[in-house]
Every structure is written in C-alpha cells, then in structure tokens.
C-alpha cells in the first residue's frame, strides 16, 4: 500500500527552540562544578542541581503558604505570620542514606526560594505550582559509610547558600 503524496498545500514549520523556557548555569562551589538547570512548564517548574552530570533523585515540592503569609510579606507584621509548609513527594530514585535529610533540605529551600521569588499579593494565597527538584550531589568520600552526624554541616550550608544564590541565574518562572 502506498501513501498519497503530500500536495503543495502542506507547510512544515520548524518549532521554535524556546518551546520550553530553559536556563542553565554552572558555578564552581567548593572546588566542584555545580550545574543548575531550570525549566518552566505550564503546571510545574523543574530545577535540577547536579555535581555529577546526572539527574539524580527527583522529588516534588509543593509550597502551601500560611493563611497570613501574604499579609506578613506585604506589611512586615511579624505577629501575623503563619508559617508556610512544604510537602515533599519522592518521584524517582532515593538519595544516599546519609544524605536523606540534606536532600530534603535542598528541595525545601529551592521550592521556598522560588515561592518567595514569585510572591505577589494576588498569587501567594492562590495555587503555587509544584517544583520538581532533581538532586545529584557528590558524596564526600570520607562520609560515604558514616552517619549523617559526621557530615560537614558548615560546608554543606555554604554550598546550599551558593546554590540558592546561583538559582537566580536560571530564573525561568
């Protein structure tokens, strides 16, 4: 069976290269290249943070602002704040056993930073899109078989702060 030939009425156009808003930024943090990639979809924001050029553990973070969060942010009235919550739902993979809490901290802080960046009095109490966070952090060779309490929290905090700062270079939301 042969297919009919397409007539001259059919036009094929290339898709624009920016169909999905994407930005990538690489920064040297503690002698390691950390790459952050962000993509904006209609229903979600994707943020990948990798030190090993892999997607890694995927988790969905949903920020639910507190009842008075918008008022607090607008008026700086610290008595009226209800702390927002971030719900994490693992999607794919698992973090290394000793990094479970650290990965949860990264995902929570990244989602909260995006939520704060998107703040406006109109949408803070509305629906905030979930943030899918992919994390592939390099394990410290000396801590691979040690409990979480042996992690260098000062170094990890510094790295997290630098990642959150570098996140602004990949703003697509």
Descriptive overview:
The protein has 173 residues and is of the alpha+beta class. It has one domain: 2-Layer Sandwich (Ribosomal Protein S5, domain 2), CATH 3.30.230. The chain is built from three helices and six strands; from the N terminus they run ββββαβαβα. It has a six-stranded mixed β-sheet with strand order 1-2-3-6-4-5, covered by helices on one side.
Total count of domains: 1
Largest sheet: spatial strand order: 1-2-3-6-4-5
Q: Which architecture name does CATH use?
A: 2-Layer Sandwich
Q: Give the overall silhouette.
A: globular
The rounded Rg comes to 20 Å
Taking pLDDT < 50 over at least 5 consecutive residues as the criterion, the unreliable ranges are: none
Task: State the helical fraction.
Answer: 10-25%
Order of helices and strands: EEEEHEHEH
Count the DSSP helices. Answer: 3
Strand content: 25-35%
Question: Any chance you could write out the topology, listing elements then pairs?
Answer:
Elements lengths: L20 E9 L2 E9 L4 E6 L6 E8 L4 H7 L9 E8 L7 H18 L13 E6 L16 H14 L7
Parallel strand pairs: 3-6
Antiparallel strand pairs: 1-2, 2-3, 4-5, 4-6
């Amino acid at each position: 069976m042969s297919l009919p030939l397409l007539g001259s009425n059919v036009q094929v156009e290339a898709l624009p290269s920016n169909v999905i808003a994407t930005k990538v930024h690489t920064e040297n943090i503690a002698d390691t290249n950390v790459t952050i990639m962000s993509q904006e979809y209609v229903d979600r924001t994707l943020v990948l943070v990798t030190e090993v050029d892999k997607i890694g553990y995927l988790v969905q973070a949903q920020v639910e602002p507190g009842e008075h969060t918008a008022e607090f942010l607008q008026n700086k009235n610290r008595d009226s704040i209800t702390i927002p919550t971030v719900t994490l739902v693992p999607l794919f993979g698992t973090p290394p056993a000793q990094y479970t809490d650290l990965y949860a901290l990264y995902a929570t802080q990244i989602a909260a930073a995006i939520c704060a960046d998107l703040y406006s009095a109109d949408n803070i109490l509305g629906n905030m899109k979930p943030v899918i966070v992919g994390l592939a952090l390099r394990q410290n060779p000396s801590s691979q078989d040690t409990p979480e309490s042996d992690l260098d929290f000062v170094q990890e905090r510094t790295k997290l702060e630098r990642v959150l700062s570098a996140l602004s270079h990949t703003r697509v939301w």
